[in-house]
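Proteins fold reproducibly. Look at a sample protein:
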Amino acid sequence: MTTQIVVPPMGESVSEATVAKWLKKVGDAVRMDEPLVELETDKVTLEVNATAAGVISEIKVQQGGNVGVGAVLGVIQEGAAAVTTPNASATTTAPVSAPPVAANNSAPPAQQPAVMPAAQKQAADRGINPYAVAGTGKDGRVTKEDVVNYAAKPAAAPAARAPAQPSGPRSRADQEERVRMTRLRMRIAERLKEAQNTAAMLTTFNEVDMSNVMALRSQHKDVFEKKFGVKLGFMSFFVKACIQALKELPAVNAEIDGDDLVYKNYYDIGVAVGTPQGLVVPVIRDADQINFADIEKKIGDLGKRARDGKLSMAELTGGTFTITNGGIYGSLMSTPILNPPQSGILGMHSIKERAVVVNGEIKVRPMMYLALSYDHRVIDGREAVTFLVRVKECIENPERLLLGV
């Protein structure tokens, strides 16, 4: 008896995916509910699990193929024993050893571990064949750090270098690498361009003195972590500060739907997370109804699962407002792009000690620039500026967050 491996429903508005990686090959034994293949959609990476125990007898769609919901990816022969000989099946794909070093770093066979885009670029810059590098990422993926570490090893680096080029000028094409965009990257590009083309987007700036929040965090972080089992970060303060400001200025929490303005009387806050595949924005539901510890726990959990590609569609949709923190990468100032259909996004940045005037005296304070990008069709300049001022006031006087004033 055979069982088909079928593309499952992938969530609202998602009808197509790309086969990112087969975790099994023809002839491999599989258990019930064991992951078989990874599908990449424009939002998340999904695993398709076995619905029966047996042996993979056929793979119908190879890595890189596009499939729709309900498409047949392969076939499981139920109850069969694993194939141990290389020619056990006409459709068996023989294992392929790492290809020889080549300047063009050709694409890997389906069986080899995936090479992350950053690793591909790093390998191309260093003249290294990325498929000769042992991957330490999820499911053996080759990461940027793997390539860097590989190049740093004296014994490994010479063997991995590209062959010497002939003397004379080189073609620019020989120094380029063409990599197909992932579905997630294409979707990010599409949505960012949509935001620029559709919204009347402006950005307003302010700066915030982080002294009091940093002092409060330093004073209570050990007790906080001991009691709640999670570290007290800055993001929970900003989530709570934004909610205070959103309640006062509901237009920033609204969106356009046709000819209507939809005001959201709930606060589902998206927190942007950078992953090897691209930027995603998981959502903290009803963030106004949970405490600092729960916000920190949710941010930590969502961030980890985002980097592991384990988020569900529901966790990536429906946010009302977004916060992005470029400061973790060292950004001093930026103009974040809206996350449609939302009308506002707050950008946090690096904390830097700067000389500022306080009560007529020059003081050195830890300062952060804040940026609010907003849709001017929904939010007036007065509301945008007031929103940032309210966030600033809550961060500089964190007791306001506890008192709700």
